[in-house]
Specification:
The protein has 174 residues and is mainly α. It has one domain. The chain contains four helices and no strands. The two termini are 38 Å apart.
């Protein structure tokens, strides 16, 4: 059972690492590429992979948490499932609500975002949605990190310590 838990930790850790790497790639793309439209395309495409990966991994981890284990606290198990559900929901909202809404706004603008006036209502709405998108990703990463610590601190059928550890009479009986 410990091996199964280690696999679950590995999968969740890979997604967390990818999410952290995505943040670095997003910042680097906008710093290096001259055209922000190209950087936005790279970031948007990478975010799609991250979101679908997060939904798939969270679903796998929720289903795999249904495998019975010995001496696992039901309270922490349900907290873990809730956090994984939060990861999946955040990735779904990111992809299917905010991502589509941002794409729709960009198509309505009809020109690159850098050419749209800062006080344009579409640009203001885009900036607000982008900020929501950042916060939703941060919430998913925080939930995944807490779930990671919950899974990693799980005890697996450890033997209960003897109440009288210093009773040596048992060892010397003939």
């Amino acid at each position: 059972m410990k091996f199964f838990s280690d696999i679950r930790l590995l999968v969740l850790g890979i997604w967390l690492g990818a999410a952290c790497f995505f943040v670095a790639v997003a910042q680097a793309a906008f710093a290096v590429l001259q055209q922000h439209e190209m950087a936005g395309a790279v970031v948007g495409r990478s975010l799609t992979f991250l979101d679908f990966g997060g939904m798939g991994i969270a679903a796998f981890l929720i289903v795999s948490s249904l495998v019975p284990g010995k001496n696992i606290s039901k309270f922490w198990l349900w907290i873990e499932r809730f956090l994984l559900l939060l990861v999946a929901a955040a990735c779904a909202v990111q992809e299917f609500v905010l991502g589509l809404w941002i794409s729709m706004l960009r198509s309505q603008m009809g020109k690159p975002i850098d050419e749209v006036a800062a006080d344009d209502p579409l640009r203001l709405q885009f900036n607000t949605l982008h900020e929501y998108s950042v916060w939703v990703l941060f919430a998913a990463m925080a939930a995944a990190l807490v779930a990671f610590f919950i899974i990693s601190n799980r005890k697996f059928g450890a033997a209960k310590p003897d109440k009288n550890v210093f009773d040596f009479s048992k060892e010397f009986k003939v």
